[in-house]
Design a protein that fits this description.
12 helices, about 325 residues, single chain, about 55% helix
């Protein structure tokens, strides 16, 4: 396993980071087949969240019929289910990696523990601070977008499909949703890193330099509102409630998984589930780089990519200095 001789990192993948995007040129059939297998034909974050979405829509969430009229009962039911799902994902990961210490420092990017006795955080504790903004603001805004979208679907104000009526589009939307999410995330993130937005709203998320599962959804309410506008794609493109729920799980519990602080979950010393990415960990360390994720090559195309090298750190720090000198 690669280690950092300068002591900046406890662990990092091979550097400089390579390009894993399906949009890299020229296309490579073998690479695309491996990408599809890894993400959709084996245990992955996407497959797990999709299965949870199907189960939650089938057995937990109110039906579209119940969603036709805005009523406290089904809205409260939706909110409580979302609370439970978020707590189960972020809380479970935090318990295993940080309380039980189930993997020690193996594959952990930053060896340090999360901040305590630090007045920059609410309750002077990073984990409690992150939990507060995740559960109080994050789940509320998540529920707001879910309720609005299902109400629109139930009343025929937006187009819908079923697996039976359009199987090709139904499956294609599942596969393409993470790609859309990455596209939206990059541009929303660029907006949040403009000095006006950053100092007022986004800085709250960036207090968590050494991230953990509760950091993923720890944001200012204004950022939550912008973050979840990715769901509005379902107001334009015909989809199904399963697509909406899967999309929301990808944005919510999925963020807890990608902010775990570990690259993979090990089972009997074998990598069984991809979690955090060094790509986004670099963003939390150096701020003005890697605004997107590796699903889309925007950072490479627009010159904001940090490949983990010392040279990229120098460029990133110079960019930050230019931005805030204005």
């Amino acid at each position: 396993m690669p280690t950092d001789p300068k002591g900046q990192w406890n662990y990092h993948p091979d550097l400089p980071l390579q390009d894993p995007s399906i949009f890299r040129w020229p296309p490579n059939a073998g690479f695309l087949a491996r990408w599809f297998w890894k993400n959709w034909l084996s245990l992955s974050e996407r497959v797990m969240l999709l299965l949870i979405a199907i189960a939650a829509w089938t057995w937990l969430y109110p039906s579209l019929e119940a969603s036709k009229t805005l009523a406290i009962g089904w809205i409260a039911q939706t909110y409580l289910i979302n609370l439970a799902l978020m707590f189960g994902a972020a809380g479970g990961l935090h318990w295993y990696f940080y309380m039980r210490n189930g993997q020690g420092l193996t594959l952990k990017f930053d060896a340090r523990d999360q901040a305590r006795n630090n007045r920059a955080f609410r309750f002077s504790d990073q984990v409690k601070d992150n939990m507060f903004f995740t559960m109080v603001s994050g789940v509320a805004v998540w529920t707001l977008f879910q309720v609005a979208t299902l109400w629109l679907m139930a009343n025929g104000y937006v187009p819908t499909i079923t697996l039976g009526s359009n199987p090709v589009q139904f499956i294609a939307l599942i596969i393409l949703m993470p790609v859309w999410s990455a596209f939206h995330f990059y541009w929303a993130h660029r907006v949040l890193h403009q000095p006006f937005m950053y100092t007022r709203f986004h800085t709250l998320h960036h207090r968590s330099i050494n991230i953990g599962p509760w950091s993923g959804m720890s944001m200012h309410p204004v950022e939550h509102l912008l973050y979840f506008t990715t769901i509005c794609i379902h107001w334009l493109v015909a989809s199904h409630p399963i697509h909406v729920i899967y999309h929301l799980l990808y944005q919510g519990p999925g963020a807890a998984m990608t902010h775990t602080g570990y690259e993979d979950l090990l089972v009997r010393d074998k990598r069984r589930l991809a979690l955090g990415t060094f790509y986004h960990t670099l963003h939390h360390r150096f701020f003005e780089c890697n605004y997107g994720n590796q699903e889309m090559p925007w950072d490479r195309w627009f010159g904001t990519f940090h490949d983990g090298s010392d040279e990229a750190t120098t460029v990133t720090r110079a960019r930050k200095k230019r931005m805030y000198s204005k």
